[in-house]
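Task 17 of the worksheet. Students: predict the tertiary structure of the chain below and write it out as structure tokens. Keep your answer in the requested format; marks are given for formatting as well as content.
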Amino acid sequence: MTDRWIVAGLGNPGPQYERTRHNVGHMVVDELAARTGEKFSVHKQSRAQIAETRLRPGGPRVVLVKPLTYMNVSGAPVVNILKFFGAAPDHLIVVHDELDIDFDTVKLKRGGGEGGHNGLRDISKVLGTKDYLRVRVGVGRPPGRMDTAAFVLKPFTTTEATALPLLLDTAADAVEKIIDDGLTAAQNSVHAR
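Model answer:
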């Protein structure tokens, strides 16, 4: 196995989903790629876009991943990338939207349940384990009686859109901190904000 890290940002393909809550995972890996000046290219064997980089000079190799499948079938592209690069599940970080966390909050964990998130559920099923790292980007709960599926497929509100760059920055920092210092140190730093 390699010490290479796989950072998968979950979302849906297509321009109609680009700025929606469900695509915040894509937005975070886009931020990480922008920081290193890397561009994404299609990795045909896995049905994903990838960018290979180092998040800091001399740091470990990192593969940033955006599955080209819909959210609920994210497992195959993510697992295919792990296999292609010879990475173990303990070197997988999945970045995703989280309804159970307030907007503008980032939480980190390893393993546990999927909280009804179909992208995570599919990754766990195809991977055969829930024991991988998650960067949970809070998008909050839908207002009133709005359907949660409709809520996550809507763009951020004007107020949220103003705060979104800082949220993406915090989540990208969290990914870097996990890779550099480990989960516990990253949790202590990120959860204290």
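Marker's comment: DSSP finds six helices and seven strands in the chain. The chain has one domain: 5-190.
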